[in-house]
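forwarding from the other thread:

> can someone predict this with D-xylose?

sure thing
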Amino acid sequence: MSEAFPNIPRISYEGVDSRNPLAFKHYRPDEVVGGKPMKDHLRFAAAYWHTMRNELTDPFGVGTSLKPWDDRSNSLDNARRRAEVFFEFLDKLGLDFYCFHDRDVAPEGATLAESNRNLEALVETLQTLQDQLGKQLLWGTACLFAHPRYMHGAATSCDADVFAYAASQVKSAMDATRALNGEGYVFWGGREGYTTLLNTDVKRELDHLAALLHMAVDYAREIGFKGQFFIEPKPKEPTAHQYDSDAAACLNFLRQYDLLDHFQLNLETNHATLAQHSMWHEMTVAAGASALGSVDANTGHPHLGWDTDQFPTDIYLTTQIMLEILRMGGFTKGGLNFDAKVRRESFEPVDLFHAHIGGMDAFARGLKTAHAIIEDGRLDDFVKNRYSSWDSGIGAEIENGEVGFAQLEAYSLSHAEPTVESGRQEMLENLINEFI
Ligand code: XLS
Ligand code: NI
Ligand code: NI
């Protein structure tokens, strides 16, 4: 097959002085940072849906994306050609991983049986390409939101037949993920939520969602799928209220339904923003529950209130993300998946390269900066010291559960008014800027 990107070379590292837009300025896959090559810290993945299937439509206009290799048909041949182009793309960018929804890679058929056959056919193609080019599947998932049957939700649909259909689709998507040796499997909420409470039995829908996830855990055991399950929080879009609203809501749900041992969170920056949280907040909440698993690396537009899925370029953002990843000791099964699309005005194939290069460079800088901040130690020392009153004396007694109200009252009556210290926010902000 002929190359899809004949004028684009394999992207290599040229360093900060390079003015070549098709080169890395910071990402050097084998450069060792803190005892580990950059590529193993970052575990970059491309998203099949945005890279290969996003036509760049918006609510006001048709798609603008140029994809000369794609005849826009639903044929298996077209699907196979797309997969080949996608792997050429991964290869040229030096992206080690990818992620997909079942329906991104294989066309939905007229029946469930036909859809399953299509997926199995494409799994064979993907397997061959993975082996040829040494690429790995970071995670697979099922598209349980695009088809009209899922208008009321999938696992949380009011219609039990739809639940059954969704479960069958997850089963096949898990089979595909296992066959391709996927590191993980993601459940993003899709249409699991509601648009109005007038017609919605929330308690029953949540019970059903948990039931589907328990079935997935059982099925993984049955087929020997060793990948990590992830839930991906998002507060709204497409529904007005998504059940998996944010990290805290997801953790509560998992705990309530006894699923916490089987799931971690896949956090997406733009979803954090929609929840009026920072990505750093979401990561901190997840890490606190030992459930920080993977990252959908993107960003939103500061003036727009929706999921614009832009490529991450902000060094403060990537530094914060990498700080949390380093603090937890690095990814295990997770990685940095560019769940991001180019703007509708950036419609040429080369724009996909610029976008990924920028994201990879931004994270390489974030990694180096975060590592330097940790090595420097002043930030961590400050925080540690800020809580030092808990390390001994009355603080340690409280933490150890050795005292109650009566003892604390006696303590306070016999001590002078507490003397508190400055939080030094501005000093710490300046400290971070020393590194950026
Ligand atoms: C949509 C989600 C979706 C998931 C995968 O907002 O980010 O792309 O990552 O289903
Ligand atoms: Ni996502
Ligand atoms: Ni998103």
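The radius of gyration is 24 Å. thats all i got for now
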